[in-house]
Amino acid sequence: MWIWQQPDWPRGRLEVMPLMGQLAATQAVMSPLVAQGQNLYPRQRLRLEATLLSEEMEASAQLSGVVLGRAALRDALYQALGLESGHQDSPRGPAPGVDVFVDVTLEVVRTAFQPLTRQQVLEWHRRLGPFLPRSSGQPLGAWREARYEAVSGRYGLKRLRYRAPAENPDALDQELDVFWQRLATEEPDVDNSGVLNALQLHAHWQALAPLALGNGLIGRLLLMRWLTRIDALAALQQQGEFVGKVAERWEPEALEQLCWRRQALFSVVLEHQDELRELEQRYLGKPQTSASGHPLPPQLDRALNGEVEDAAPGDMNVWAEWWLLRLRDAGRRTAFHYQRVQRAERLWLEHARTPLNARQRELVLTLLERDDEEGVGRAEYRALVDTSDPTAARDLADLTAKQVLESYGVGRGTRYRLPVFAPQGDSPVRDEP
């Protein structure tokens, strides 16, 4: 039985009290990020956002089966955010379509408090065409016109993982009406700023699957939008500056300054994508027919679905628990970026007059984004900027002489790192599931 065949569709079943401890733990991780973000200078904030969004976008694209380089994303973000060392200075230009991906993502984030229309979602879908699988031949920028089925496995062993509701445009239009009615009252705002609202809306979108392809990518963008609203509301609450609906009180330009990503979630989700597939199977339901529509033989049914045989589709507590844990993991990891962006700002100030070529700037930007203190070896640098070994040696020696980098190790084991990223303590610790 699928989730939409349950009597409580589309809301599912949610018991808030058992989640209170996890909600409090998640809030304890996210609130300091909001407070720290308010203490950043505008340029620091933009640098941090470029780092977080490049991680977020790289992982989200990979979850959709598209591999993008973080350096290309970062270069496009630097240009879009008006930061120096954009891709015009990079030794390589951005990958095709990256600028569009960046523009759509920034639009999703910056307009988080503007009304979300169906036309806007379809426009994002159309523009993100290069990042969607085209083998289905389905049109972009349009709702699906037939039944949606998620099928996995190789030829001859296809497995139906999920069948969405609504088999024709009229039925889908009715389901979309329900979704947009929920948005009107449940999209995070002053009256309901909790993260549970965002997770419930995200679950509804994933179960509805209103597009022929790209539901996951668009769904992650929408979740990013709702989490941005929550963080912006938390920032305002910490300042004690608002009463009433935010969109009615603040000018659009002021709201755009509030709407920026304060953590990167999907890089953590990517590391747990096998768990996510099992979670979706449990939440969305299990098939009782094969991909061809024939009933599954009992033995095959048990073999394919035994791991979720006792699960009840629509259990929002299971869904929320998993996502709250990932949010805490992401928040802890992101806290290190906040420390690093402040140290990075000191580096740029110290070397504001230090001449660097495009290859050297590429290395510095890459090292600023890393979450380790290992730096790079000469061979890694040569591959990063696609240059010769003698040029790489000269670049690294020059950076060391200018005290932009420090070297450690001997011989072929020599590595180069930024002095501001000398070891600063232990690595972040994750919750146990």
Task: Describe, in plain words, how this protein is organized in 3D.
Pfam families: DUF4172. This is DUF4172 domain-containing protein. There is one protein chain. This protein has helices at residues 20-38, 42-63, 70-80, 98-110, 118-127, 169-186, 195-208, 215-239, 246-249, 252-258, 266-271, 273-284, 298-305, 316-350, 358-369, 378-385, 389-401; strands at 149-152, 159-163, 376-377, 406-408, 415-417. The two termini are 27 Å apart. The strands form two sheets. The protein has a three-stranded antiparallel beta sheet with strand order 3-5-4. It has a two-stranded antiparallel ribbon with strand order 1-2. Strand 4 and strand 5 form a beta hairpin. It folds into two domains: 3-336, Fido-like domain (Fic-like fold, Orthogonal Bundle); 356-421, Orthogonal Bundle (Arc Repressor Mutant, subunit A). The chain is globular and about 70 Å long. It has 433 residues and is mainly α. Helix 1 (20-38) crosses helix 8 (215-239). Residues 86-92, 299-309 and 425-433 have low confidence and may be disordered. The protein has 17 helices and five strands.
